[in-house]
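User: Show me a protein chain along with its predicted structure.
Assistant: Here is one chain, sequence first, then structure tokens.
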Amino acid sequence: MSYSGSDILVLEGLEPVRRRPGMYIGGTGASGYHHLLWEIVDNSVDEVMNGYAKRIEVTIHRDGKSATVTDDGRGIPLDEIPKFRKSALEIVMTTLHAGGKFEKKGYAHSGGLHGVGASVVNALSEEVRVRVKRGGKEHEQTYARGLVTSKLRVLGGCRGTGTTVFFRPDADIFGPKLGFEVAQIRERLEAKTYLHKGLKVLFVDEATGEKVEFAHSQGIADYLGRIIAERGKPASHAGSFCVSSDQLDGGAKAELAMAWTESTDEHVRSFVNGIPTAAGGTHENGLKSGIVKAVRNYLETTGTAPKGVTLAAEDIREGLVVILSTYVAEPQFQGQTKDRLNNPEVAQLIDAFVRPALEKWLYENRSLSEQIVARMALASRAREASRAAAQQVTRKTAVSHRLNLPGKLADCASTDPADSELFIVEGDSAGGSAKQGRDRKTQAILPLRGKVLNAEQAAMAKVLQNKELQDIVSALGCGIGPELDVGKLRYHKIILLMDADADGHHISTLLLTFFYRHMPGLIRAGHVYLAQPPLYRLDVGKQTYWALDDAERDKILATKVAKNQKPDISRFKGLGEMMPAVLKETTLDPRRRTLLRIAIDDEAETERQLGELMGKDAGARFRFIMERAREADVEIDV
């Protein structure tokens, strides 16, 4: 194949964004779709953060696929930039790396840093309309797919200043099905008002007529109480530790609120310049080291270290719920999605901010400190007990042929984890079909009997006593909880294969809860998948179609079946009904199957949903069901 200068393609304007949207928004799924909204909202929050605005209004329009964001800030500049002979507004909306945040003349702190947010939204939207109030007049300009579609024009006189941005994400980029998730947006907008005292956010959902205004005068102290209540695990002590400082080195600021709870995990929500950093970073590293140092210094100087146990860092931090909001003049984010902070100097800044303040608080609240230390000692003992229990189900050596495995596991011949897949299958009947239809060289089958334990409501010791979950841990061979070592994983694809009905979905949810709570490293490493077996088979003449659900069945009937044809439709009651050849064709064969990789896009939202749907509070589930009752398509025989 020839390769010459004629093969070199130079992408101009915003075409690189449309060609490779993942570089700018992380992907074209739901997370990327919502990232467009956060880019615009964060520009408005930057005005609030620097004292130029107090109110933001976010509207999700009736179609569920377009949004408008309005603020009362200064308004995007409109004057012409002589070098380009274009207005500043047009440059900002159509040019990558153009903005007012590279130098700190207009903004002391900001979440927008790269000058690409507004232009990326423009590039990936089929329609954008920007209105700016400045100098007593309201101006408007429109755009589409990165291009200008109208001249900048004056709409008339106005009072005040501000910017309004309407946009509709491009269906050519994101597909026709995606839309805005109202609950997720409402949650994140309210979080903004916790982080920025004095900010008011009005959220409007035109589809339901909902209008709600968020404002929280106590800031993250209020936020901490809400998160603890949502997680359903009460605090282990009265009160909470709250501290703030706007005089850190380098113009940095930080605010912290935290408390120890009865939970068995650590929950940190961190923010940099108002941007949620789901993947953490150096500010979280400094936070964690500062907490551990403060506790150890307190125990050493007071001589109150618990006897008979050794407190590890995870024992000290177990059950912590923490909110950390940091403001950095020149933050270095991992990418445009800004989910991880990389500034090395921030770790030491936050460590030095947290350690002395927490140590002082522990000294001044001795009775609370005793409760907290007792809780840490209990965590240490539980960790040691869990380690002992886990060793009973973890493989002893990295053998080439697998030993000490569950008796019902039909293992594969390959000993290379990268080539090996484990199907966790619902029921012995389905397991039998899967064993016959699989590729014995690379595909292993582990049948489960019945619904597994709800790991959200069970302690680690009880989880390890459950036979079905114990078999999964034993088959995977990589340990569980703190002992998890992804490097020892026997199968790089863990595929949940359940019936395509409500019971099957429930079992999948229970297993995903188990993996998220006790083996989250497998999800973060991209090893956990959901299989997509069909619910229907449709035979139309000599053609056979497979439908995952009712909606896909109806679509096939509408598009593939002629008026004079009578399709033969069969519904599978379960995987056990499928012949091995059919299961192989539709679900097992890598060349023809569809797998959904499980990923955590928003850890805070995942925690909230998991707590509501799988926690002990039945009231939350009742509300969830009642709010969505009309969406259910259920036939009831009376």
